[in-house]
C-alpha cells in the first residue's frame, strides 16, 4: 500500500470518529487539492450545516461530500424536487445531472439565490434529493467562450476526474527531503516587459509561474530550454500558476503540453476562460500573418482541461510543501497576486503579477494583506522615476475633451485597446458620459474580441468592483448592455460602412497596433485629418503603437507582423495619448503597494519593466524602506534559506 493510500485510510478513520454513527462513509479520495468524501447518507450530512466545516477545520483539508450512487433520487424526480426548492426569482436556466459523481450542475441567472444564506438552499437540495449541487451563473450576455469551455469540461468530465485524482496523489505524496531552501529562477520579463516566466523551486517541488510572449518581438520567448526550466523535462514540473490571461503572461502555457507536461494549471475561473479565448486568437493571428503557430488548438484544450480554478482567499495545497493563495490584483478580470507558503512556515514568497493598487471603474485595488512575505517579486512596468499617471478623473475628462473636439470636427475617434480590461474600462466611461450628457450620444463600435471579452466579464461579476457587480445583477442597469454599443462582426463591408458614416467611436484590438482589426481601421480612417487615434494603454518598445506615439506617420498596414513587404499608409489623423487608464500601478501605486504591506518583505525583486524602470524602483525601495532589492536579469537564480 502506498503512503498516499495509508494517508487516505487514516483520514477515513478520523472522519468516521467525528461523524454520527448513523452516517456511512463509503470512500475517501483526493481530487486535486480537495478531499472528496463519498457517503450513502448525503441527506444526513446536509442536515448538519456545520459538519463539513468542522471536518475541514480538524483535518485542515478542503472537503467535498458526494453521494454514493445508491443514495440518489432518479434524475427526473430529482429535477422536479430541486426546482421546487429553488426560488423562482433565481432564474434557473439549466439542470445537468452527473450520475458518476452524484453532482447536479445548476445554471441560474442569480446563483446567490440558489446558494441561499450560508449555503442553506444547497443543503436543502441535498436533503431532498441526495445530489450534490454545483452552481454556475447564466451569462447576462451570451458568451461562446464560456459556453464552449463549460461544454468541453462536461464532455471531458471522466478524464478530468482521472487527472484530478492523479494530481491529488501527487500533492499529498510523502516529503522526501530534509533540506530547507527556496530558489527563484528568472526565465523572462527581467529588464523588459513581456515573456513573463519564473521557476519557484524547493527541495520537493518545481513550479512555473506564467509563460508569456513578448509584444513586438517575434521569437523572443522565455528561456524554457535551460536545465532549471524544461531542460530537465516538462514532466518534472509539479504545477503551473497563471497570474492572469494577458498574452505576455499566458501565450505559451499550451506549449507546455506539447513538450510533455501533464500536470495542473492553477488560475481563477475567469482567467481560465480568457486564456482559452486569447490563446486561440493568438494561433489565429499567427496563421493570418503567415507564421507557424508554436502549438495547436488541441494543446489549448489540454490546458483548459488541466486547469484547477481557485477563488481569491482560498488557501490551497499544491505540493507536499507548498500552499498557494490567490488575491485580487486589480489588473484585469481574474488577475491574481499569488502567495506561496513554503514548508511549515519556512518561507513565504509573493508574485505580484501585474497589479493596479487603486480602485478603478472595473476592479477593487490590489490586495497586499498577507500573514507574511519574506520575498516579493514585483512588477515595475511604470516603476521609472517619472512614471506618474494622470489621476483617473482627469484622464476621463481628457478623453471626453478629445471626443467632443473630434465630434465637432465631424471626425471619428479610434481607440486601440486590449480586448480584456482597458476596453471594458473605456466602455464604462463612455456609457456614463453619454448618460450624463458630457459627450454627445453616438455609436460605439466594438471590434475584435472586445464584445466576447465583455460577455465573459458579465459572467463573473463577483470579480468586479462592488458597485459595478450590483448593476450587472440588474439587466436594466447593466452598463455593458447600453444601446450605443455595437458589436462589429469582423466584416470589411461593415467597417467601410462605419468609416463612410457619421461621427462615432471605434474601440478595436490590438491594443499595441500589432496586427488585428485595428490595422483595418487605420486603412479606413487613418487618412482623415478630422479623426483622432487615441492611445489609452501601455505601448511596449518595438510595437507599432510605440512608433506611432513617437511620431511615425508612414504605417505598414498589410505586412506588419508577418515579415513580408506590405502596403504603407500615410497617417493623417491626429494622435492623442490619454494616460491614467492603464491596468498597471504607476510609480506611486507600486511604492504604496510595498509601503502599506505589514509586515514588509525582506527582499524585493523588481521585474517586468524596462531597464530604467526596474533600476529606478529597486533603488527607491532600498533607500526609502531599507529593504534588500534587486533588478535581476533573465537567467539569474536567487537562493533563500
TrEMBL record:
It is an enzyme of class 3 (hydrolase). Residues 73-140 are annotated as: KHb. It comes from the Archaea. One of its GO terms (molecular function) is RNA binding. Residues 194-418 form the Metallo-beta-lactamase domain. Residues 98-168 form the K Homology domain. SUPFAM superfamilies: Metallo-hydrolase/oxidoreductase, Prokaryotic type KH domain (KH-domain type II). Terminates transcription on the whole genome. Termination is linked to FttA-mediated RNA cleavage and does not require NTP hydrolysis. Cleaves endonucleolytically at the RNA exit channel of RNA polymerase (RNAP); the 5'-3' exonuclease activity of this protein degrades the nascent RNA released from RNAP. Belongs to the metallo-beta-lactamase superfamily. RNA-metabolizing metallo-beta-lactamase-like family. FttA subfamily. PANTHER family: CLEAVAGE AND POLYADENYLATION SPECIFICITY FACTOR (PTHR11203:SF51), CLEAVAGE AND POLYADENYLATION SPECIFICITY FACTOR FAMILY MEMBER (PTHR11203). This is Transcription termination factor FttA. It comes from Halorubrum persicum. The gene is fttA.
Amino acid at each position: 500500500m502506498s503512503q498516499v493510500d495509508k494517508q487516505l485510510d487514516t483520514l477515513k478513520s478520523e472522519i468516521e470518529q467525528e461523524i454520527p454513527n448513523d452516517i456511512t462513509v463509503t470512500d475517501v479520495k483526493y481530487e486535486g487539492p480537495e478531499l472528496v468524501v463519498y457517503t450513502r447518507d448525503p441527506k444526513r450530512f446536509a442536515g448538519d450545516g456545520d459538519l463539513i466545516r468542522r471536518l475541514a477545520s480538524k483535518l485542515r483539508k478542503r472537503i467535498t461530500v458526494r453521494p454514493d450512487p445508491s443514495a440518489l433520487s432518479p434524475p427526473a424526480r430529482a429535477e422536479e424536487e430541486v426546482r421546487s426548492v429553488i426560488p423562482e426569482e433565481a432564474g434557473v436556466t439549466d439542470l445537468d445531472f452527473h450520475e458518476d459523481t452524484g453532482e447536479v450542475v445548476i445554471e441560474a441567472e442569480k446563483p446567490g439565490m440558489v446558494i441561499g444564506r450560508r449555503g442553506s438552499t444547497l443543503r436543502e437540495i441535498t436533503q431532498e434529493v441526495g445530489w450534490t449541487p454545483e452552481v454556475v451563473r447564466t451569462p447576462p450576455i451570451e458568451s461562446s467562450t464560456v459556453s464552449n469551455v463549460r461544454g468541453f469540461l462536461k464532455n471531458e468530465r471522466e478524464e478530468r476526474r482521472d487527472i484530478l485524482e492523479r494530481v491529488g496523489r501527487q500533492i499529498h505524496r510523502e516529503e522526501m527531503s530534509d533540506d530547507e531552501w527556496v530558489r527563484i529562477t528568472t526565465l523572462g520579463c527581467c529588464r523588459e516587459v513581456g515573456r513573463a516566466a519564473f521557476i519557484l523551486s524547493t527541495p520537493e517541488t518545481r513550479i512555473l509561474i506564467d509563460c508569456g510572449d513578448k509584444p513586438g518581438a517575434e521569437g523572443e520567448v522565455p528561456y524554457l530550454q535551460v536545465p532549471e526550466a524544461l531542460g530537465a523535462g516538462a514532466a518534472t514540473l509539479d504545477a503551473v500558476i497563471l497570474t492572469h490571461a494577458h498574452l505576455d503572461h499566458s501565450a505559451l502555457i499550451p506549449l507546455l503540453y506539447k513538450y510533455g507536461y501533464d500536470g495542473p494549471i492553477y488560475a481563477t475561473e475567469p482567467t481560465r476562460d480568457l486564456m482559452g479565448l486569447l490563446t486561440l486568437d493568438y494561433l489565429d493571428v499567427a496563421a493570418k500573418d503567415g507564421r507557424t503557430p508554436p502549438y495547436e488548438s488541441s494543446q489549448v484544450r489540454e490546458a483548459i482541461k488541466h486547469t484547477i480554478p481557485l477563488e481569491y482567499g482560498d488557501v490551497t495545497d499544491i505540493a507536499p510543501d507548498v500552499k498557494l493563495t490567490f488575491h485580487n490584483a486589480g489588473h484585469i478580470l481574474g488577475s491574481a497576486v499569488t502567495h506561496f507558503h513554503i514548508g511549515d512556515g519556512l518561507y513565504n514568497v509573493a508574485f505580484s503579477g501585474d497589479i493596479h493598487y487603486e480602485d478603478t471603474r472595473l476592479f477593487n485595488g490590489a490586495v497586499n494583506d498577507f500573514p507574511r512575505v519574506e520575498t516579493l517579486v514585483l512588477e515595475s512596468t511604470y516603476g521609472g522615476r517619472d512614471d506618474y499617471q494622470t489621476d483617473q478623473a482627469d484622464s476621463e475628462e481628457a478623453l471626453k475633451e478629445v471626443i467632443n473636439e473630434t465630434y465637432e470636427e465631424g471626425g471619428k475617434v479610434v481607440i486601440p485597446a486590449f480586448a480584456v480590461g482597458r476596453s471594458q474600462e473605456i466602455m464604462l466611461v463612455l456609457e456614463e458620459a453619454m448618460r450624463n450628457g458630457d459627450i454627445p450620444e453616438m455609436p460605439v463600435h466594438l471590434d475584435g474580441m472586445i464584445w466576447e471579452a465583455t460577455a465573459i466579464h458579465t459572467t463573473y461579476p463577483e470579480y468586479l468592483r462592488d458597485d459595478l457587480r450590483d448593476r450587472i445583477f440588474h439587466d436594466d442597469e447593466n452598463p455593458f448592455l447600453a444601446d450605443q454599443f455595437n458589436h462589429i462582426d469582423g466584416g470589411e463591408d461593415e467597417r467601410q460602412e462605419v468609416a463612410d458614416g457619421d461621427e462615432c467611436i471605434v474601440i478595436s484590438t490590438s491594443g499595441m497596433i500589432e496586427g488585428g482589426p485595428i490595422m483595418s481601421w487605420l486603412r479606413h480612417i487613418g487618412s482623415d485629418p478630422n479623426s483622432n487615434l487615441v492611445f489609452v494603454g501601455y505601448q511596449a518598445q518595438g510595437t507599432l503603437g510605440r512608433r506611432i506615439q513617437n511620431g511615425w506617420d508612414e504605417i505598414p498596414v498589410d505586412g506588419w507582423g508577418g515579415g513580408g513587404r506590405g502596403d504603407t499608409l500615410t497617417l493623417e489623423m491626429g494622435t492623442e495619448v490619454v494616460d491614467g487608464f492603464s491596468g498597471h500601478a504607476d510609480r506611486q501605486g507600486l511604492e504604496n503597494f510595498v509601503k502599506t504591506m505589514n509586515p514588509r518583505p525582506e527582499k524585493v525583486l523588481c521585474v517586468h519593466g524596462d531597464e530604467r524602470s526596474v533600476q529606478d524602483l529597486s533603488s527607491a525601495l532600498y533607500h526609502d524602506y531599507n529593504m534588500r532589492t534587486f533588478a535581476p536579469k533573465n537567467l539569474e537564480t536567487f537562493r533563500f534559506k
